[in-house]
Amino acid sequence: MPTLKLDIQVVPTYDKDLLSIQDISTYAITPTSPTIEIKVPGWDTEVLVFVPNTINNFDSTELGITTTGNETAIPDGIYYLKYSIAPAIDNYVEKSILITNNLQEKFDEAFMKLDMMECDRAIKQQSKVDLNTIYLMIQGAIAAANTCASIEAMKLYNKADSLLNSFLKENCGCSGTNYITNF
């Protein structure tokens, strides 16, 4: 007989307007009063109805950021999630997750700029190195948030954002420093 084990995971949607959370719990009982608390960075915690055994989608209105008809992209940052069923005292799971949809869109823009630019080979190679460094910072930020190292996560996120802003401001996406290959 299965035991009760609550668990959730954030599902990538590639849509800046949605937060999708999947219930991956094992239930020994029929869930009673399932709710999810979502703390959006910079906003109050919202307590929402959560449908078990499925993917639940939340937009900016449901997250308490906007009003109906004025939906917008959900902000990047660390989201704190708490899924519970009655009685909530013992039956809950908590997670933190770093949402990077807006930063990822900026990274995609920089990447596409690199592919289309008309720079010399050495500068183009340096730009690839710069983008790889930024990508590693984004992944490091996500890993840090997933292990509850929120300060480190935001430091890495902010550094990646700063580097992307600089990258996108430069002519043709080039850093201006030449990549030197030593054989």
Summed up:
It contains three helices and seven strands, in the order E-E-E-E-E-E-E-H-H-H.
Describe the protein:
It is a single chain. The chain has about 180 residues and is of the alpha+beta class. It folds into 2 domains: about 10-100, Immunoglobulins (Immunoglobulin-like); about 100-175. It is built from 3 helices and 7 strands. It has helices at about 100-115, 120-145, 150-170, and strands spanning about 10, 20-25, 35-40, 45-50, 55-60, 75-85, 90-100. The strands form 2 sheets. The protein has a 4-stranded antiparallel sheet with strand order 4-3-6-7. Helix 1 runs antiparallel to helix 2 (about 120-145). The longest helix is centred in the C-terminal third of the chain and has 26 residues, at about 120-145. The model is unreliable at about 175-183 (pLDDT under 50).
Write the layout of secondary structure elements.
Blueprint: E1 8-11, E2 19-23, E3 35-39, E4 45-49, E5 55-58, E6 77-84, E7 92-99, H1 101-116, H2 121-146, H3 150-169
Could you estimate the helical fraction of the residues in percent? 25-40%
Parts with pLDDT < 50 across at least 5 consecutive residues:
173-183
Total discrete domains: 2
Strands across the major sheet, in which order?
A: 4-3-6-7
Number of helices: 3
Q: Percent of residues in beta strands?
A: 15-25%
Approximate shape: elongated
Q: Provide the structure class.
A: alpha+beta
Tell me the span between the first and last alpha carbons.
62 Å
| SSE succession | EEEEEEEHHH
Mean pLDDT over all positions: 87
Sketch the major β-sheet. Answer: 4 strands, antiparallel
CATH topology of the largest domain: Immunoglobulin-like
> What radius of gyration results from the CA coordinates?
20 Å
CATH class designation of the largest domain: Mainly Beta
Oligomer: single chain
Number of strands: 7
- State the CATH superfamily name of the largest domain: Immunoglobulins
